[in-house]
Amino acid sequence: MDKNMHYKDHRKTLEPLQASACRIYKKIPHTGVWGISPRILRKAFYLVLVSCMVMITNTASALKIADFDVDITGKVGERFDDNVTYVKDGEKDDFITDLDAGFDIKRRTKTWDMDLTGTLRQDIYVNNNSFNNFSQDVGLDAAGELTKYDRITVSDSFLHAEEPRSFEDESGNEEGRYDYYRNNFNFGYSRDIARQFSIDLGYANGIFIPDKTDISDSYLNSGRVVLNYLPNTATILYCIYDFTHRHFEPGGDSPTHSTLGGIRRYFTETVYFDGYAGADFIRTTDKKDLTKLNLMGSVTGEFSEKTKAVIKFDKKFNQTYYSGDVSDFWSVSGSVSSNVLKRVNIDASVYFSRGEYEGNGRTDNFFGSNMGLSYDLMENVKASLSYNFSLKDSDEGTNEYVKNVISAGVGYRF
User: What per-residue confidence (pLDDT) applies to 173?
Assistant: First the structure.
């Protein structure tokens, strides 16, 4: 088909849609609808409109712009949350409509790979309109070969949200829901110095800024050196030196020196064990010197063509984004994803952690589990259903809760 004719056909379809959209937009009351502000309504309206227009004007394959492959996604979801306030007493339940618009931009060359992803989400609460929020999640991953022996990696992730996005976030979260900004940047350089030896250098920067006066802003800078030795094709031995400096405002500074030794052992080409052990030398924000164990073990792999799983154990003295107080922290987690039928995929995960804080003597226990089911309705249309359970138990009654969330949605990949 001639490109001009293709464009004209789409324009004939879009012009009535645009005209109707303008009429609907003008009719949005200045006072809002059902207690929802007009600003939120217009933002949600734009997300739906853009998704509809892109759906009409694109074919099933990814867009090609210069050397970039571009995927656009849209999703509409509904969830019921029986504890939107993350509290033990006086919890509030609500139905929430989620409107997602996402993108995935890839570029591949002989020596460089780049992947830029992002999701914009508007959450609309039926009963608690003050919780309506617009979140942004953007990530960049790039890797390249400078020479035959030299490689670099760069990654950055930005998140602006009002709720924890993972069980790990929930386990360290402090008292309820609040708006926050978080950005993590990583740079890595790797060089092969001999047939069986290589060296990795890394730098990391992290920023966490909550919109809550009783929680400190935190800033992280970290440097790392890793020496790798390959005694055979199935084994990698490595030793690590890591320096991390955290600054809490207010709260002070906490530097940590870590020395670790580890191994990666491949049982098959797709199943391997990772483990390391060592010591952390911590200077706390109240000027105490601690020497503590740092230990991790995990098994990762594709156990069949249709099933992937990860099991992990982690123990260390930990500082979170939220607090400079050091905790004796350990966690156990597991996840599995299986394509049980041609169009059906099941995901499940469990997570348990325990943290005993040095400063205030508080102990937190957290358990979370998730079960998700997705079904490919058509080539680019997917329906999903999930259940999420969270339980937090603490010596401080204000920092514990039980939470159940049921979600359902339909997404389209352009």
Answer: 73
**Contact partners, residue 283, CB within 8 Å, separation at least 6:** 254, 255, 256, 289, 290
- CA dist 259 and 329 (Å) reads 18
Whether residues 112 and 38 share a domain: the answer is no
Q: How far apart are CA 56 and CA 10, in angstroms?
A: 7
Per-residue pLDDT tens digits for 138-155 = 999 999 999 999 999 999
Please check whether residues 189 and 207 belong to one and the same domain. Answer: yes
Q: Classify residue 368 as exposed, middle or buried by CB count within 10 Å of its CB (0-12, 13-18, 19+).
A: buried
Residue among 255, 252, 251 nearest 280 (CA): 255
The total domain count for the chain is 2
The pTM of this model reads 0.81
Spatial distance between the Cα atoms of 108 and 156, rounded to a whole number of angstroms? 18
Q: Is the domain of 312 the same as that of 346? A: yes
Q: Are residues 37 and 104 in the same domain?
A: no
**Range of 55's domain?**
1-60
* DSSP codes of every residue in 203-216: EEEEEEEES-TTS-
Both 116 and 191 in a single domain?
A: yes
Compute the average pLDDT of residues 181-210.
Answer: 96
The predicted-structure confidence for 12-40, as pLDDT tens digits, reads as follows 444 554 555 455 545 555 555 455 555 55
Shared domain for 42 and 71, answered yes or no, is: no
For residue 317, give Cα distances in angstroms to 57, 314, 332, 361, 379.
53, 10, 15, 14, 47
